[in-house]
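It would be a great kindness if you could assist me with a short task in structural biology. The matter concerns a single protein, recorded as an amino acid sequence and a row of backbone structure tokens. Could you please explain, in whatever detail you think fit, how the structure tokens follow from the sequence? Thank you for your consideration; the sequence and its tokens are set out here:
___
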Amino acid sequence: MNLKIKYLYALSASFLLTAQSGFSQAAKTKGELPEIKISKNQHYFVTGDEKPFFWLGDTGWLAFGKLDRAGVDKYFKDRKDKGFNVVQVMVLHNINAVNVYGDPALINEDVSKPLLTAGNDFKDAKQYDYWDHVDYTLEVARKNGIYLAMVPVWGTNVSKGNKVSKEQAIVYAKFLADRYKNKTNVIWLNGGDTHGNEFQDIWNAIGNTLKTNNPNQLVTFHPFGRTDSSENFHNAKWLDFNMFQSGHRRYDQDSIKTNFKEDNYKFVLRDFDLKPTKPTLDGEPSYEAIPHGLHDTLQPKWTANDIRRYGYWSVLSGAAGYTYGHNAVMQMFRKGDKPAYGNKELWTSAINAPGAKQMVYIKKLMERYSSPDRIPDQSLIANQGEKYDYLAAIRGTSFALIYTYNGRKISLNMGKILGDNVYASWYNPRSGELKNIGAFENKGVKDFQPIGKKVDGNDWVLILESEE
């Protein structure tokens, strides 16, 4: 067999194997899912048995409140089928939270007083309460191999009107820690779209309580747009990994000169070098089908192209995963709901949006190249550009991955990975298709021209692998 053909066949078979296995194995495991922990080099996630875990998240923020049991079943099965293994969700969107069955979460809107009933029989309305529905959702997620990254109480309940005191927060966090102590598919997102430099006594109280009472469950902080947990809590003992919200604005919509704007890879590159070393990821980039800047519904909407760009920019800069979002799904929009951000699509339709279907390809790629020695390396790039011309690059000892969003030429400084020769191929983020380029001498500067015209959304990942 021709060596190039043999190489392409082996690489394609590897992607196929990843696609067939994915994370479904965990869903078939009896009992709880494997605990997720931090890798030995502190940059990535692994399961309890040290197998790499690539976080592919979805924002199902309002699932607990707006989905009935049939909706829960439908949503999590769909997300499993599309390769997602994490769903970010609010435990309490508001302190007056009531679920689809009319069950309030709290007594007198006091987070320290969860409203609990005896029993959990769904057929008996007097037994089945808000927290039983959370339990049901967690169990459905587990059966589908999905971890729930849960926000205890959304940030506006603390930042606007100070509706939650430190004392109440501690009692509430202890309740959550005790109730979900044995759930291995629970991850905690402290905060919730809020500024980390405000009300730090409350956020630290929640974080410390959750971590002290159950040290095996990971905890992070979900911050306000264009900010990062590392800016305020990186050295907090309760913070296991960093999360940033790259936000929903265009370059020209952002008046803040000190942030990274659309360049979410800059958050990753900064966090990657921080000490102590902790994983980081984009927990809220621009959502598919949401207006640029959020509030002006006459603005263009972010598309699958943009969602892929944020994803590949970040994970090929060293992020431990990536979270996707869709305007309709994040608010679980149903008939009769008051729309936010100009949305008119039902969540049951939006789960099949192009971007949602394409996220599995980023997961397959990173599972294929999951070596813990991978590091971002911009020295690979000989023709670096700005904004949408930017080329993200990561490498291990025997491979390199380089992403172009718009199909511009990639000029590489060779010799950065092992071997006298390397094999090159193109990976299509829109379809997962792999195309062989050929074998090349591993020295000098070499140009690689992607397929198609230079236009936004004609994105490709260049794969280099050392000759064995």
Q: What stands out?
A: DSSP finds 14 helices and 22 strands in the chain.
